[in-house]
Amino acid sequence: QVQLVESGGGLVQAGGSLRLSCVASGRTSSSYSMGWFRQAPGKEREFVAVISWSRSTEYADSVKGRFIISRDNAKNTVYLQMNSLKPEDTAGYYCNAGGSRTKPGPYWGQGTQVTVSS
Questions:
Q1: 21: left (phi over 0), alpha (psi -120 to 50) or beta
Q2: Which of 19, 6, 1, 18 is nearest to 106 (CA)?
Q3: Which residue from 27, 46, 41, 29 is spatially nearest to 104, judged by alpha carbons?
Q4: Is the pLDDT of residue 93 over 90?
Q5: Quick count: other Cβ atoms within 10 Å of Cβ 27?
């Protein structure tokens, strides 16, 4: 089992920045790919970014050039630096372990809310 705990969400004005963190505990493995997904009210959960054990990254087109995913294996932590935030980025952001952009892994965090005001 892997437990994931996100933090760093909040309220920010459009154009601002936030950094989300996700700390993994339990049966953690630096070989897991780690990803971020988000879900806005009334919408399906969607892929945001993923980073492999070798630190290769993929991004959704909607966040490419604005968001940066990174990981610190020594701290079992993955980060999502979000810049130039837009109101349409408003959503619950969820950390995921062990999956890919098209197939999330079995481990999810509880989520952290990001609200971007216009």
A1: beta
A2: 1
A3: 46
A4: yes
A5: 10
* Those residues with Cβ within 8 angstroms of residue 94's Cβ, 6 or more apart along the chain or in another chain: 6, 36, 37, 38, 39, 45, 108, 109, 110, 111
Closest CA to 10 of 76, 71, 89: 89
Tens of pLDDT, residue by residue over 47-92, are: 999 999 899 999 999 999 999 999 999 999 999 999 999 999 999 9
Distance CA(62)–CA(72), nearest Å, equals: 25
Beta strand residue intervals within 1-118, DSSP E: 2-7, 10-13, 18-26, 34-39, 46-51, 57-59, 67-72, 77-82, 91-97, 107-108, 112-117
Tokens 């980060």 appear where?
A: 79
